[in-house]
Design brief:
Helix content is about 5%, strand content about 45%. The chain is globular and about 40 Å long. The chain starts with a strand and ends with a helix. The strands form 2 sheets. Strands 1-2-3-10-5-8 form a 6-stranded mixed beta sheet, with no helix packed on it. A 4-stranded antiparallel beta sheet has the order 4-9-6-7, with no helix packed on it. It is built from 1 helix and 10 strands. The chain is mainly beta.
């Protein structure tokens, strides 16, 4: 589950305490995301269009942006301008952890009440 914060409830410095977190500000959203082993996302374009930047933290992924592909690892950055088709595949035998920066942000997901979070199925 993604921990959701906004500009009224966030730290200026990120040191994630969980696998996945997201921060929504007026003009950008920042997500810490873990993609499971073997996950594949077919070529797609964000709707509404967003500039989409990925910073690899750990693991390996094959990113395709339009007609170019990169086998990416920790420290690599993937830039997808708004309206550009892209897709990915998680490579190897460990999850891929990334920082995802999107602008403009999509609507912030609904924050679950604490009791609903505890009872949520993984």
């Amino acid at each position: 589950m993604v921990k959701i914060t906004d500009k009224t409830d966030y730290s200026r410095f990120a040191r994630p305490a969980s696998e996945d977190e997201g921060i929504w500000l007026e003009n950008v959203s920042v997500h810490l995301v873990t993609h499971p082993v073997g996950q594949v996302k077919q070529m797609h374009v964000h709707d509404p269009p967003q500039d989409h930047v990925i910073v690899m933290r750990s693991g390996r992924m094959r990113w395709t942006v339009e007609d170019q592909s990169l086998d990416a690892g920790p420290g690599d950055v993937i830039v997808t301008p708004a309206g550009t088709a892209h897709g990915y595949e998680v490579l190897g035998d460990e999850p891929a952890r990334v920082v995802c920066v999107d602008s403009p942000p999509t609507a912030k997901p609904r924050r679950r009440p604490p009791d609903e979070q505890r009872n949520a199925k993984p």
